[in-house]
Amino acid sequence: MLSNIVQEANVGQRRMALYPGRHNWETARRAAGLTCSSHDDMHAGEIETSLLLHVRPELVRDGYKDADHLADRPHLLVLGMRGYTTSGVVGQPSLATAEKGRAVLDSLTSSFAQTLEALQDGAVSTPDLRSTT
């Protein structure tokens, strides 16, 4: 995994960061109030459509509100996307809004700043989530 390579490269000194990670995406999903999980929202679903509606709404095709397609994908690596969708959608674009897209980008921007801070000086200004009991 690429994350292992980055971690090994940072053993002696901080040299690189891998961004965004799963935690960053999940935090952004919660901050935006997204309904779909990252598993169900694989491509052209709620998060990607929300981002486009915020940043480049002219790129979102008419009919996205009727384009929902959910699929279990046990052989995705063998069959590819075409094995599970003819439209390219795996998710629920009908749930997308520009406001959600803005909230996702705001969250990612904030967490990227924290990642840069950690890369530069090793300190991160995030709350301590460890139990104090």
Q: What do these coordinates show?
A:
The structure is a single chain. This protein is mostly helical and 133 residues long. It has a single domain, classed as Rossmann fold. It is built from five helices and no strands. It has helices spanning 2-9, 22-32, 46-55, 76-79, 98-121. Helix 2 packs antiparallel against helix 5 and helix 3 crosses helix 5 (98-121). The longest helix is centred in the C-terminal third of the chain and has 24 residues, at 98-121. The mean pLDDT is 91.
Largest sheet: number of strands, sense, barrel closure: none
| Shape descriptor | globular
Helix content: 40-55%
CATH architecture: 3-Layer(aba) Sandwich
- Counting H and I runs of at least 4 residues, what is the number of helices? 5
Low-confidence stretches: none
State the fourth-level CATH superfamily. Creatininase
CATH class: Alpha Beta
What's the rounded overall pLDDT mean?
91
Number of strands: 0
How many domains comprise the coordinates? 1
Structural class: mainly alpha
- The CATH topology assignment is Rossmann fold
Residue fraction in strands: under 5%
Series of secondary-structure elements, N-terminal to C-terminal: HHHHH
Terminal residue distance: 35 Å
Radius of gyration: 18 Å
